[in-house]
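Annotated sample (chain length 67).
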Amino acid sequence: MKTNTQRVCIYPKDIQRITGKSYRQSTRLMQKIKKDLNKLENEFLTIDEFCTYSGIKYEQVTHLIFG
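Output written by the structure step:
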């Protein structure tokens, strides 16, 4: 039986789909958010943290990330 799992972390490709920016700009934005949230380089950024920082509602983001 296959379980329906949804990931918690967000990647630059997801940010690219949401914002329409290039992959490199999305990577920079992700690094800026992590820096502003005092996260270490090896820590992941969650979808909730991205939504809170950017002011975009979670419901608007999920269909772009999960399809």
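Annotation: The chain has four helices and no strands.
Annotation: Residues 23-36 form the longest helix (14 residues).
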